[in-house]
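PT: before anyone asks, these are the final sequences, not the draft ones from last week. 714 residues across everything. Please model them as a single complex and drop the result in this thread when it's through.
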Amino acid sequence: MISRREFLMAAVATSAMVGGSGFGKWSRLAAQQALREDDILGFQPLGNVTLVHLTDIHAQLMPVYFREPSINLGVGEVKGLPPHVSGADFLKLYDIQPGSPAAYALTSQDFDALSQTYGRMGGIDRIATVLKSIRADRDANTLFLDGGDTWQGSYTSLKTGGADMIEVMNALRPDAMTGHWEFTYGSDRVEEIVADLPFAFLGGNIRDTEWDEPVFKAYKMFERGGVKIGVVGQAFPYTPVANPRWMFPNWSFGIREEDVQANVDAARADGAEVIVMLSHNGFDVDRKLASRVSGIDVILMGHTHDALPEPVKVGKTLLIASGSNGKFLSRLDLDVREGEVKDFRFKLIPIFSDVIAPDAETTALVEKVRAPYADELGRELATTESLLYRRGNFNGTFDDLICDALIDQRDAEIAMSPGFRWGTTVPSGQAITVEDLHNATSMTYPQAYRSEMSGALIKEILEDVADNLFNADPYYQQGGDMVRVGGMAYSINPTAGIGSRISDMTFLKDGSPIDPDRNYVVAGWASVNEGTEGPAIWDVVEGHLKERGTVKLEGNRAVKVVGM
Amino acid sequence: MTITRRQVFALGAGVAAVALTGLPRVTFAEEDKVQAAIDAFSGGATPETANVSLTAPEIAENGNTVPISFAVDSPMSDDDHITEVTLLAAGNPSPDVATFHFTPMSGAAEATTRMRLAKTQDVIALAKTSTGKVYMDRKTVKVTIGGCGG
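LR: through. Structure below.
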């Protein structure tokens, strides 16, 4: 929990954030508990350029439930600063009334109950409606940019190698995209797709390992509303660390700050009056980068899935966090004159699927790509009596379910499940379908391994992942959440140094301390190691669900946060 | 099957040949070794942290072969040029990695190489001028298990 002092510090820091325009109106509507499509789409245009940003949709073509984190800690200089504010603190910081549509969209507060009232969010056909309405007024001024993590995260995207998303997104006519999970289809597939893509795939931080030459275009110039815009693309820097490097062995990534500066300078030299960075770095990395690289006007951020109703400003750079899973579309209007941004207006547009009418053309396209899989997608596996979610720094209930399945089905003592930030939510009382399960597990390396690890090794793994999440220097963070564990408890001090954050590791089967010298049978999935063997994780969880019929996950009490 | 620490780290690096030892904690023995190497290069003088720019990934994609570049700001004239640059890996069993020799004819004191890093550690570049000055730059490179991102 955030202390009052920390909260005040965060509040002071909001002076560095800039007043959004659309949001105030949204808040008032929230107070009235009523929301109409006109209110959501309403926007007083400004200036000569409109940027529309969609990111981290994770192949969610349909409206979804997605609970934002109840815990999203920041360490070091960013402690208590957005996006490291959640729950009631978030509502206070942005002056949002509890129980309002904004509270439902942006926080975890009363999520299960509010999901009954406000329903699903997102849906690419609703996004299309918003996009078309913006273009109807401002087509010649509008750039539509996709921040990546677009092709992975659903049953149909996995079955089609991302083709479902590519077909639908192409119809929406993005101007450029960058990537991360895209690369887990392997370099051959990515090259095949990019060759036919009717827009730019940008990634200035990807080089081939042999000759250190750029693999993709670093930036592209556009002209909108008479303004020359340079869009610089930055893919997820730690793709070969966080995901299986053997799937794209000839590509090297990294933050490559010097290259970012060089590409910004090159775009300026090409005549760019405004520089937009389309980034998959993650929030804290971009916040640091914005303070060190000069000449970037706007960073459209991705990867860490943060949704903020107002931009955060670092120097002259506007940082935009547009959320994930299709819940939001960001609109940023810029007034660019004499080579600089004179004014802006921003709105994080919430895609309430029951309020925004679907675009019929896009609905038809989505139905077409899903049709071959419709029966399987809707197949019910069990019923959940409690809210199932993943997002948050530590075990969510969907992770606990996966860990229970790994321990039961694989006869293990301890389970490990990766701390991905994707994975949709299932409200209590609903059936868990194949689609729901795949939304939480769908990937190209799903094998559930079973092996023995010493207690000492388990601690080392937890320490290593904790440092990737809580290193005080954002450039050393990978942006996922903490690895989830089942069958054991532990305490974590995020502010401690590498190797000393984890304590009180307990084996839950008998309450004994985890013995560094004893071997434990561990089951897990999504190993980045080539040749990992085991059944696909969704088959493991399906087996578990079918045996149970009904599941109830009460919320994890095995992970204790200390020292914050 | 029993997974050893070696295999798990290899799991992360994705290369079965990497043996990564433990979590980064610079021991006194390591610091002593590094200081000894710095002293040997500088003749006991304290190097100034300036003029050398070391480029290294923040997190290594493959600890077995980490790309490292350096560039030293120097006129490279007959009177004032870089004579040698040494790269040290502070956490490796033997910190000395490579020494590059330069003359005014080199034009610029720059090079790129790859090194193996056994674990998270600092990489150090030391440069010596013909006038007897010693400059330094230092970067931490993290070697991690990986996975779980996104």
